[in-house]
Amino acid sequence: RLNEQASKKILKKRSELIADIPNFGVTTFVNHPQVSELLGEEDEEALHYLTRVEITEFKDIKSGYRIDFYFNENPYFKNKVLSKEFHLNESGDPSLKSTEIKWKSGQTQNKASSKRQHEEPESFFTWFTDHSDAGADELGEVIKDDIWPNPLQ
Question: Where is the stretch described as Disordered (predicted)?
Fold first, then answer.
């Protein structure tokens, strides 16, 4: 089994190689059956600007992890990085926090945060603002456990 330092080095190199492949991120998400269900046309267009995805597991994996999405300059939002964090507190209760997406004016997605609680996320980007059920964030689990370890699958 690789030690943590060697593993980080390999993942860093993988990220660098992936960054040179045009549309790798959007292709990965569009071709994943669970994720593609969430992708509307605008989501796909915005994901063309995705350069890499990184997962950071906190010291104790039981305490959570963070998913970072890195984007090039794009016509949809001002953020260069969008993150979502998953935490378990000492009593085992889950919680979420995420980057506020700074939508550029005229983008319809800036209405995403107004969705009602307990609905399925209506788009990939509403997933960032959906904190309604921290214990059942299936998309986060799919990205961490399925897409991140083997994006070519």
Answer: 90-121
- Give the Cα separation of 76 and 56 in Å (integer): 26
Structural tokens at position 120: 């399925």
pLDDT tens profile 49-79: 999 899 988 876 567 899 999 999 999 999 9
Nearest to 145 by CA among 30, 44, 40, 34: 34
Quickly count: other Cβ atoms within 10 Å of residue 41's Cβ: 8
> Within 10 Å of residue 77's Cβ, how many Cβ atoms?
20
For domain 4-147, give its CATH number from 3.30.1120.90, 3.60.150.10, 3.20.20.70, 3.40.50.80: 3.30.1120.90
Do residues 112 and 125 lie in contact, with contact meaning Cβ atoms separated by under 8 Å?
yes
What tokens appear for 50 in the block?
Answer: 């995705």
Which own/partner pairs from 24-32 qualify as long-range (CB within 8 Å, at least 24 positions apart)?
A: 24/151, 25/50, 25/51, 25/52, 25/53, 25/69, 26/50, 28/147, 28/151, 29/124, 29/147, 32/142, 32/146, 32/147
HSE at residue 78, side-chain half, CA atoms within 13 A, is: 7
